[in-house]
Amino acid sequence: MSLVKEINKSQLPQHIAIIMDGNGRWALRHGKDRIFGHHQGVESVRVVIETAAELGINYLTLYAFSTENWERPDEEVAALMGLMVQSLNDETDTLLKNNIKLSAIGDIDRLDEDVKKRLFETIQVTSVSTGLNLVVALSYSSRWEIIKAVKQIAGEVANGSLEINSIDQSLFDHYLSTKEIPDPDLLIRTSGELRISNFLLWQLAYSELYFTEILWPDFGKEDFYKAIIQFQKRERRFGKTSEQISEKKCNDGEKSF
Ligand code: IPE
Ligand code: IPE
Ligand code: MG
């Protein structure tokens, strides 16, 4: 029986971010090479995108390749890039058909021309979509992003176009590659690793974290539902007391009558 009926559709996370980890270990356990594991992981990507769209999630950010992943063996990097192009070739029509809009965050300039071209084409083609916003983090790291923002802000202060006193959290947000994207409500990481690995450090300040032992190629629809159900059981306090939170819920409830 599916867990989907346990999900409260009126309290869905607006933005889910996923660190898709464990392809290499999955391959090792199946006696295959790491690249086989990455191929296998593509099916899980397809499933989470489809599930997020079906549920009506607004934003889904997938960590596909980190700045640090450039340091992996050349053939693995080449395979991952090839896989990215192939997946975009295969899936662009489906994204469009399902009203999904693709965007990318990260140091896209570092990508090879063919990857960049394919990525921009899909972004362009799906820009008319109004449903799920699918964000792929590619050649992305949070420290890279923060340094880039700091340099831009410092430059504007130096040339007099920005007042130092106008720098606050919402202004800083605006200089990040996620500027039009709300902060994630829920972060999922597969493969049992309990770390963030340079992903959305600023944006995850108040996200609920969900870790699972499941390796990415084994992560399916029901696992995704499980994470959302777990999220819905948490009380997000944002620094306040539990009493303040339930008071607010009560007041909001009263308003809706
Ligand atoms: C995640 O799987 C995919 C990428 C980081 C690109 P890994 O390749 O990191 O798999 P493990 O962690 O070695 O098992
Ligand atoms: C994080 O996974 C990056 C992606 C999933 C794209 P890694 O496998 O690169 O992270 P570490 O090295 O285990 O921290
Ligand atoms: Mg890994």
Question: What is the CATH architecture annotation?
Answer: 3-Layer(aba) Sandwich
CATH topology: Undecaprenyl pyrophosphate synthetase
Order of SSEs: EHHEHEHEHHEEHH
Number of strands: 6
Uncertain runs with pLDDT below 50, 5 residues or more? none
Helix/strand class: alpha/beta
- What's the arrangement of strands in the largest beta sheet? 3-4-2-1-5-6
Ligands in the structure? Answer: 3-methylbut-3-enyl trihydrogen diphosphate, magnesium ion
Largest sheet: 6 strands, parallel
Number of domains: 1
Rg calculated over all Cα atoms: 19 Å
Shape: globular
Helix count, DSSP H or I runs of 4 or more residues: 8
CATH H-level name... which superfamily?
A: Decaprenyl diphosphate synthase-like
Q: What share of the residues does DSSP label as strand, in percent?
A: 5-15%
User: What fraction, in percent, of the residue positions are helical?
Assistant: 40-55%
